[in-house]
Amino acid sequence: MKIGVCGLGRLGKAVVSSAEKEETEIVGVFTRRDPRLIALPANADVYGFEYVSEFQDKIDVMINCMGSDFDLPVTSAYLSQFFNLVDPYQNKKDFGEHLRRCNRYALKGRKLCLVGAGTDPGLFSLLKKICKEFKLPDIMLSVGRAEIKDIYEFTANAMLCFSKAVYSMNKKGKSGAISVFELSLEDLLINKDFSI
Q1: How far is residue 16's CA from residue 144's CA, in Å, rounded to a whole number?
Q2: Looking at residue 64, what DSSP letter applies?
Q3: 122 located within any domain
Q4: If 26 and its partner were Cys, which of 39, 40, 44, 133 is the partner (CB 3.0–4.6 Å)?
Q5: Residue 70 forms part of a structural domain
Q6: In angstroms, rounded to a whole number, what is the distance separating the alpha carbons of residues 34 and 118?
Q7: What total number of domains does the chain contain?
Q8: Contact by Cβ (8 Å): 130, 196
Q9: Is 195 within the bounds of a domain?
Q10: Percentage helix, strand, coil, to 5, in the chain?
């Protein structure tokens, strides 16, 4: 599977690092910053965001790591018309509107966009849902400042697993936008390496 990464903040860098460890091919990393000033440890080329649509036939899944407050509402909808997309959107107040907006664009491009694949809503929320469904003790996950790097690595690895599910589901004909809560265990287990 070939991935692209949009955004080079802490989450974007963690996705690049995790993808390199998993030997996932990174076709390109896209940023609004000057690409000539970006140095990455991975074997990934960095491009300006304005060139992202030119890669639609080269990338299987795009992982959007741009800022949640301002960038994701605009960039995820735009990207979902060109790419299968994993989106870490976390603004609970506008979650439904963001999902509907991404759905319109993803359907137009026959792509699949997974919304809310970040932490909360996202993977932590999904873990809580699983615990509730199987009547397991509730997971209380707290993040201290010393652990902040680990939370980005954890989220990056989860987003890479989600990207494999999104790619597989789209190959089977699924398109539009779905929330992380709509994934079934079967969708996640298509990747044998996925573990919680």
Answers
A1: 23
A2: E
A3: yes
A4: 44
A5: yes
A6: 26
A7: 1
A8: yes
A9: no
A10: 50, 15, 35
Length of the chain in terms of residues written: 196
**Beta pairing, strands 112-115 & 176-179:** parallel
Q: Reduce the DSSP state of residue 174 to 3 states and report it.
A: coil
pTM: 0.83
pLDDT in tens, the chain (196 residues): 999 999 988 889 889 988 888 778 999 999 988 888 887 766 789 999 999 999 999 999 999 999 867 788 889 999 999 999 999 887 777 888 999 999 999 999 999 999 988 765 566 666 666 666 766 554 444 443 334 446 788 788 888 888 998 999 999 999 999 988 787 656 665 554 444 3
Q: In this structure, are residues 116 and 87 in contact, taking their beta carbons and an 8 Å threshold? A: yes
CATH number, position 24: 3.40.50.720
Helix axes 148-171, 10-21, angle to 10 degrees: 60
Which residue, among 196, 151, 194, has the nearest Cα to 14 in the 3D structure? 151
∠ CA 173-66-3 to the nearest 5 degrees?
A: 45
Parent domain of 128: 2-182
